[in-house]
Design brief:
It is built from 11 helices and 10 strands. The strands form 2 sheets. The protein has a 5-stranded mixed beta sheet with strand order 3-2-1-4-5. The radius of gyration is 20 Å and the shape is globular. It has 2 domains: 3-111 and 289-301, 2-Layer Sandwich (Nucleotidyltransferase, domain 5), CATH 3.30.420.40; 115-285, Nucleotidyltransferase, domain 5 (2-Layer Sandwich). Helix 3 crosses helix 11 and helix 9 packs parallel to helix 10 (265-275). It starts with a strand and ends in a 9-residue tail after the last helix. By secondary structure, it is α/β, with parallel strands linked by helices.
């Protein structure tokens, strides 16, 4: 029985899924983030996260991680695949290794046959689509300096900016300031700003504060509600951009959403409403998660198209 591996590697964590050739999921495992590999410490982090998630998946499947071999292994990586192929090839035993972006594998699992649009809003954000002709397009995914609008890091960044404006007297009052100070232990928003520039507060940790924004919005904080609504608009615009590049107006398109940001009911429903304002667009949750999408891509690379089961 041939074995297949799908791995989703991102800014927030790494997830591995092992399946047999019938589509049955045998085991899965999770580990820390692995999105950067350029520096020495980045490479070690990538190898550690992949090997840990693989070991846990092997344990669940009753396989020996030291001897297991895969027919095809597919990795969907945040931050791009270019610097990771060689590293992954050195630590895996596989007949074929596919390394692509996390957007590709997310879409592979999100919709039937991997066609349509997926909008991802985790730590960062991106939209990716593929039509029935095999053409693909993306929007966003520029990173935290120049983009990632609507992602968790951006939500916290906008919240801290609002808290700083309040603190300096040129912005409206908002409960976000008190929430951020409590979460960070900082005595002021300015102090929290400087904390966020330090090593103990990487982007992935800052992004975990995003639920504070949703909680404030649910508490009728006007500033927080504006931030959440703006994020929904930005994410819907990413999806609309991809749609416009690949489909004609009115053509039916499935649009899925993935990522922790969409756990916000306020944001999710606003996003869904905006997406479905376009005739033909149907918006909903993904059929499968990104790691399972990577597994499905591994199957497709082998000429298989099984339905996943457990």
């Amino acid at each position: 029985m041939r074995l297949f591996l799908g791995v989703d590697g991102g800014q927030s964590g790494t997830a591995a899924v092992i399946g047999d050739e019938t589509g049955r999921v045998l085991g899965q495992g999770e580990a820390g983030p692995c999105n950067h590999a350029g520096a020495v410490e980045g490479r070690a982090k990538l190898e550690g996260a992949v090997l840990t998630s693989l070991q846990l998946a092997c344990q669940g499947a009753g396989l020996d991680p030291d001897t297991v071999r895969f027919a095809v292994a597919c990795f969907g990586m945040s931050g791009g695949p270019e610097d990771k192929q060689e590293i992954l090839a050195a630590i895996l035993r596989t007949g074929r290794l596919l390394v692509t972006t996390d957007a590709v594998t997310a879409l592979a699992g999100a919709t039937a046959h991997g066609q349509g649009i997926v909008t991802i809003a985790g730590t960062g954000s991106i939209a990716f689509g593929r039509n029935s002709a095999g053409a693909s397009a993306r929007a966003g995914g520029w990173g935290y300096v120049f983009g990632d609008e609507g992602g968790a890091f951006d939500l916290v960044r906008q919240s801290l900016r609002a808290a700083l404006r309040m603190e300096e007297g040129w912005g409206p009052p908002t409960s976000l300031r008190a929430a951020l100070l409590q979460a960070t232990g900082a005595p002021s928003a300015n102090h929290a700003l400087h904390l966020f520039y330090t090593d103990p507060w990487p982007r992935s940790r800052i992004a975990t504060l995003a639920p504070l924004v949703d909680a404030a919005a649910l508490g009728a904080d006007g500033v927080a509600l504006e931030i959440v609504n703006r994020a929904a608009i930005d994410l819907a615009m990413l999806a609309a951009s991809v749609r416009g590049q690949l489909w004609q107006p009115g053509e039916p398109v499935d649009v899925a959403y993935i990522g922790g940001v969409f756990e916000s009911l306020t944001l999710r429903e606003r996003f869904r409403m905006l997406v479905e304002m376009e005739t033909g667009s149907r918006c909903g949750p993904p059929l499968h998660g990104p790691a399972e999408g990577a597994l499905l891509e591994a199957y497709r690379a082998a000429g298989l198209d099984p339905a996943l089961s457990r």
